[in-house]
Automatic annotation (TrEMBL):
It is a multi-pass membrane protein. Residues 362-372 have a biased composition (Acidic residues). Its main location: membrane. It holds the Pfam family MMPL. Residues 343-380 are annotated as: Disordered. GO terms for molecular function: transmembrane transporter activity. It is found in: Cell membrane. The chain crosses the membrane at residues 178-198, 205-231, 237-256, 277-302, 308-331, 407-431, 562-582, 589-610, 630-652, 687-707, 719-744. SUPFAM superfamilies: Multidrug efflux transporter AcrB transmembrane domain. This is RND superfamily putative drug exporter. GO terms for cellular component: plasma membrane.
Length: 975
């Protein structure tokens, strides 16, 4: 992947206008699509398969006037007045008549109706007018809502001075999140951090431009999708928050790597390509972890949450693609100006890139002549320490302190985070309601007035419903059920108990003593459901508990139940991914445990603010209490991806230094393995701390900006993410992880051999790019060889265990255009050789270039351009060869030539002659293509016979021998 990104980065750098215009066109098209197809967001919450949802479905079928969403108007009389007296009674009656005439209103409950109780306060200080609608809240038009508010406003003007009228209820319980100037402050802080980090005004804009284009495209696509799917209003805001944060950070990692390389004298174009191949690989890995975690939100089995996760994942995916394409394009605009203040070549006396590379090559060659390979590699940390800038010396001093007293540091961090996590035990979950809206909101005013005069439970009535078709006395049955339910602790009153018009379905409206987001109300729902079987046995009615409040409680319960499996999924995934990247057991365990500490501490911060009220006024929290139900699972998913992001960028540099230091340990025999490991932790930390610090500060600023003026649904999520990022980056990744790794020493990089064999490899730091660049002139600059190999070998298990049987090893060979190589030996060895040459099998050792492409890095290209015929396994050997020669392949590998009989050999020879002639016919003034062959067989006689029939000379032969280990395998080349 890194080699593909390297090529993509170079192309984007060379064609900046094409890339920029392409993204702007995509943004314009998506924006136009959003303007045409957008249908608006949907704030109705449903959860298929739950009892509350089944109850709503039953009401839809048989009691439609009670199944839809509801609203209520609260009227509070002036001090000393009674709503039962004039003019309140008549004016409220007129308002009820006006409500009944509004489209969409299917039922209006008159508070003075003798069949209804609880609609007038006991002290007659207030009255409630309840309205029922056809469908859910999203089915009610804005025009209808406006008419309801107009009626309430007219009543407010008509009633005596000092009275209060407010419109609220389920219809107005959710608000649509909106951006404010406070969120822009987060972007400005990010810009300031970027300017300080890059020491350049021009370069600082690149991550912001990249992130804003990506966010704009993601939001436009989300609004387009509202034409085909139901999307909550929280989804776009979450996508903006995540897209901005990761978009800035991903571009930051690439630009920072590029700037460091340019300052070191690298050619800007080469540097942009290399930065995209190396840092871009880590960006892709980090983005994939976030994607998996967000898509994993489907664990909860709640449609709207799954949709939210997918939408946020789309925003992150776009941020990744924009970062690896648009960022190098923007660097192409800057050219050498990317170096920043005080780093111009005029001021530093820096040589031109070409001369600098030549000087470095000469110095490297001189060092190689005087020292063994990599003997000086373990001095990297010391060299880094000597060349540190003043800004880099601070993280260096920090990591020195942390690793000097690792046990004390580890205990201090764990104890601190444990204390911060204590409030998490008090965290309660609920869906948003009007009580969490700002006090200036009319819905919030209605909520508070209702709670004050009718009790908190009046804001979240429950409904019990069931089929009563078998009853001979529907009215008497409903009275009996009402009496039974009123006995349940937590029930304030039963406001209504009635059958429908056809007397086949009963409805019981229950007013709890506690509010809709109070844990006691959830206990009441469970108690009513526990009572239902007893009522069925006694009265023959199977009652379901439903209503807006019950749906919210069911969603909260299901989300709470999903946290453990989701946590296991996320932690398990992190262990596997990090084991693949770092080839270690302890590093992933440390990362996963650190992640758990960060999550629990973030939950603790949210609970301390929203449950305990610490700092609530400072953060403009209008009401303390339960937070939105899906906050924990979203925070776990997003923080997982970002934590792995920081882990990769920090620890990968530590591992890089450790590997190099271990290779050169022979020149420093006095240094122990533990000292080398600790030195690598310090040098790797110093090299990457600046960028990780900037990334964490930017993330924190973006998330924190959504807290003060954010929507009640977004506010706890933003606070949790901001706290989680700060805790994870600075306390876990930059303090706890180096301390634990210093405690473990070289054991931090231990992994069982069997596990190393099982796990795939992932090039996270662009090692393939570095290898390609180091072998760019091998075997010689501008080589004409079609296939060239040096000490190529393959072990039976892919080279993951010492002492395994070598299929072949030490093979050195070269084939020019139009030439032929015959490889002979054991059938397993020849088959492996054919697969390696055709890019189907990775070589274990040595160097191999096929058609100008290095293997295994460019295996994908080789597989697509090199023909392969495995004659030994083919049912029709001639047809297998024909397919390999199709597509005008100039290099064809044929395995098992000795499997051809006489007639098949004649046909095969004819196919080779035709392919050679076809290529010759394509000759131009600039180039003459020629068919190059690699043949394998037990002996060379069959291959020589085929070549003779095809009128092709045998240019070279290669004898492959198998052995127990690499050292016992030989190969010989006969020209």
């Amino acid at each position: 992947m890194s080699t593909v990104l390297y090529a993509l980065g170079r192309w984007s750098y060379r064609h900046p206008w094409r890339v920029l215009v392409s993204w702007l066109l995509l943004l314009a098209l998506a924006g136009g699509g959003a303007a045409v197809f957008m249908k608006g967001t949907d704030n109705s919450f449903s959860i298929p398969g739950t009892e509350a949802q089944e109850g709503i479905a039953l009401l839809d079928r048989s009691f439609p006037q009670a199944s839809g969403t509801s609203a209520q108007m609260v009227v509070v009389a002036a001090d000393g007045d009674s709503v039962a007296d004039a003019p309140y009674r008549s004016d409220i009656g007129d308002a009820v008549s006006q409500f009944e005439d509004i489209d969409g209103v299917i039922a209006v409950t008159d508070p003075y109706d003798e069949m209804v109780s609880g609609m007038v306060a006991e002290d007659e200080s207030a009255a409630i007018v309840r309205l029922q609608f056809d469908g859910q809240s999203t089915d009610v038009s804005d025009e209808t809502k406006s008419q309801l508010e107009d009626v309430a406003a007219d009543l407010r003007d008509t009633l005596p001075a000092g009275s209060q009228v407010a419109m609220g209820g389920d219809l107005f319980s959710t608000s649509v999140p909106a951006l404010s100037l406070i969120e822009a402050v987060g972007v400005l802080i990010a810009l300031f951090v970027l300017i300080v980090t890059f020491r350049s005004f021009a370069v600082a804009w690149f991550p912001l431009v990249s992130a804003l284009i990506g966010v704009g495209l993601a939001i436009a696509l989300i609004y387009v999708s509202t034409a085909f799917a139901s999307i909550s209003s929280t989804t776009p805001m979450l996508a903006i928050m995540l897209g901005l944060a990761v978009g800035i950070d991903y571009a930051l990692f690439i630009v920072a790597r590029h700037q460091d390389q340019v300052r070191a004298g690298e050619d800007p174009e080469e540097s942009a390509a290399r930065a995209t191949g190396t840092a871009g690989s880590a960006v892709v890995f980090a983005g994939v972890t976030v994607l998996i975690a967000l898509i994993g939100l489907g664990f909860a089995g709640i449609p709207f949450l799954t949709t939210m996760g997918i939408a946020a994942a789309v925003a992150v995916a776009i941020a990744v693609v924009v970062a690896i394409t648009l960022t190098p394009a923007l660097l192409g605009f800057a050219k050498e100006r990317v170096a920043g203040w005080g780093h111009g070549r005029k001021h530093r006396g820096m040589p031109l890139p070409g001369r600098r590379r030549a000087a470095e090559a000469d110095a490297t060659e001189a060092a190689d002549d005087s020292a063994p390979d990599d003997a000086h590699a373990d001095t990297r940390a010391a060299t880094r320490a000597q060349t540190l800038t003043p800004a880099a010396k601070k993280p260096n001093r920090w990591v020195m302190l942390v690793t000097k007293h690792p046990l004390i540091t580890t205990l201090a961090v764990v104890i601190t985070l444990g204390v911060v996590a204590i409030p998490a035990a008090s965290l309660a979950l609920a869906l948003p309601n009007a009580g969490q809206q700002p006090e200036s909101s009319q819905a919030r005013q209605a909520y508070d007035l209702t709670a004050e005069h009718f009790g908190a439970g009046a804001n979240g009535p429950l409904i019990m419903t069931g089929t009563i078709v078998t009853s001979t006395d529907p009215l008497g049955l409903m009275d009996d059920l009402k009496t039974e339910i009123e006995k349940v602790p937590g029930v304030r009153e039963v406001a209504l108990a009635t059958p429908n018009e056809t007397a086949d379905t009963g409805l019981i409206q229950i007013v709890p003593e506690t509010g809709p987001d109070d844990p006691a109300t959830a206990e009441l729902v469970r108690a009513l459901r526990d009572l239902a079987p007893e009522l069925k046995d006694e009265y023959g009615v199977d009652l379901l508990v439903t209503g807006f409040t019950a749906v919210g409680i069911d969603i909260s319960d299901q989300l709470g139940a999903a946290l453990l499996p989701f946590g296991i999924f996320v932690v398990g995934l992190s262990l596997i991914l990090l084991m693949i990247v770092f080839r270690s057991i302890w590093v992933p365990l440390t990362a996963a445990l650190g992640y758990l500490l960060s999550v629990l501490a973030a939950f603790g911060v949210v609970s301390a603010v929203f449950e305990w009220g610490w700092g609530a006024d400072l953060l403009h929290v209008d009401k303390t209490g339960p937070v939105i139900s899906f906050m924990p699972i979203i925070l776990m998913g997003v923080l997982f991806g970002l934590a792995m992001d920081y882990q990769v960028f920090l620890v990968s540099r530590m591992r890089e230094d450790y590997v190099h230091a271990r290779r050169g340990a022979s020149s420093h025999a006095t240094r122990s393995a533990r000292d080398i490991a600790i030195g690598a932790v310090r040098s790797g930390f110093t090299a990457s701390a600046r960028v990780v610090t900037a990334a964490a500060v930017i993330m924190f600023a973006v998330f924190a900006a959504f807290v003060p003026e954010g929507d009640s649904s977004i506010k706890p999520i933003a606070l949790g993410l901001a706290a989680g990022i700060a805790i994870d980056a600075f306390l876990v990744r930059m303090t706890l992880v180096p301390a634990v790794m210093a405690l473990l020493g070289d054991k931090a990089w231990w992994m069982p051999r069997w596990l190393d064999r099982v796990l795939p490899h992932f090039d996270i730091e662009g090692e393939a790019v570095e290898r390609e660049l180091s072998l760019a002139d091998w075997p010689e600059p501008g080589t004409t060889a079609v296939v060239v190999g040096e000490d190529v070998g393959v072990l039976a298990d892919g080279g993951k265990s010492v002492g395994e049987v070598a299929l072949f090893d030490g093979a050195t060979f070269r084939v020019e255009p139009g030439g032929t190589l015959i490889a002979t030996g054991d059938p397993r060895a020849t088959r492996a050789f054919a697969l390696v040459a055709a890019g189907r099998l990775a070589p274990t050792d040595g160097r191999l270039r096929v058609a100008g492409h290095l293997l295994p890095e460019r295996a994908a290209w080789v597989r697509g351009h090199v023909g392969l015929a495995l004659l030994g396994d083919a049912d029709d050997r001639v047809d297998s060869l024909r397919r390999a020669l199709s597509g005008r392949a100039e290099l064809v590998v044929i395995d098992g030539v000795d499997a051809l009989d006489g007639a098949e050999r004649d046909q095969a020879a004819a196919l080779l002659r035709d392919a050679t002639a076809a290529l010759a016919a394509r000759a131009t003034a600039e180039r003459t293509p020629a068919l190059t062959l690699l043949l394998t067989s037990r002996t060379d006689s069959a291959a020589l016979a085929l070549l003779a029939d095809a009128h092709r000379p045998a240019l070279s032969t290669l004898t492959l021998q198998t052995g127990a280990t690499r050292s016992s395998t030989t190969a010989e080349v006969n020209a």
